[in-house]
Design brief:
This protein is of the alpha+beta class and 189 residues long. The chain has two domains: 4-33; 37-188, no CATH class. The chain has four helices and eleven strands. The protein has helices at 4-31, 83-95, 161-171, 183-188; strands at 63-67, 78-80, 100-106, 115-118, 121-124, 133-135, 140-143, 147-149, 152-153, 156-158, 174-177. The strands form three sheets. The protein has a four-stranded antiparallel beta sheet with strand order 2-1-3-6, covered by helices on one side. A four-stranded mixed beta sheet has the order 4-5-8-9, with no helix packed on it. A three-stranded antiparallel beta sheet has the order 10-7-11, covered by helices on one side. The chain starts with a helix and ends with a helix. Residues 180-189 have a biased composition (Basic and acidic residues). This is NosL family protein. It comes from Halorubrum saccharovorum DSM 1137. Residues 170-189 are annotated as: Disordered.
Length: 189
């Protein structure tokens, strides 16, 4: 009987190991579901899903979210006129049980932005072409800078650390990973 115990223990370990490996493999496959998603262009008369404003008519960063269920957007990603609108919508959707596969924001490291003043506000140009976006997982946003967007105080995204430093030197603000933004971040703007 003592000979059987080690064999069954060995089998159990093998089965547990195989089961754990399969679980990790399945999780990896599920995690890759959003890896092939690419951003779309947000030009034309596309309205923000959070506030209803026409996206390309307003300055500052814009965003999009691709959800697992494609609803209620009807098979297209959620589309937003500002990073604040995108995050607000995302948090509400996640609270409702929706799963984000990929989220994108304007990447000011990829575009030649124009800086302009409107009254006393400093603003960055809007870029709505698909090539202007990067995944939020690859971005650093700057909060509480002098630069505002379509909805006022804004989170300004960059993929290049040097661009973040230059922006903060010129316009102030506090950099943070885009994936660390939470409701408290938005409230503090």
């Amino acid at each position: 009987m003592t000979e059987r115990e080690p064999r069954s223990t060995g089998r159990r370990r093998l089965l547990v190991g195989v089961g754990a490996g399969l679980s990790l493999a399945a999780a990896g496959c599920l995690g890759d579901e959003g890896a092939s998603i690419t951003p779309i262009s947000l030009d034309g008369e596309r309205a923000c899903d959070q506030c209803g404003m026409i996206i390309e008519d307003h300055p500052g960063p814009v965003g999009q979210i691709h959800f697992e269920d494609d609803e209620p957007e009807g098979g297209r990603p959620g589309q937003f006129c500002s990073s604040v609108c995108m995050y607000t919508y995302r948090f509400d959707a996640e609270d409702a049980g929706r799963t984000v596969l990929a989220a994108f924001l304007t990447d000011y490291s990829l575009v030649d932005q124009e800086v302009f003043r409107e009254g006393s506000d400093t603003m960055f140009s809007s870029h709505v072409g698909s090539e202007a976006f990067s995944r939020t997982t690859d971005l650093t946003v700057v909060a509480r800078s002098e630069v505002v967007g379509a909805m006022g105080p804004e989170l300004i995204p960059f993929s290049d650390d040097g661009d973040v430093e230059s922006f903060v030197d010129e316009y102030g603000g506090e950099p943070m990973p885009a994936e660390d933004v939470d409701r408290g971040t938005l409230e503090a703007l």
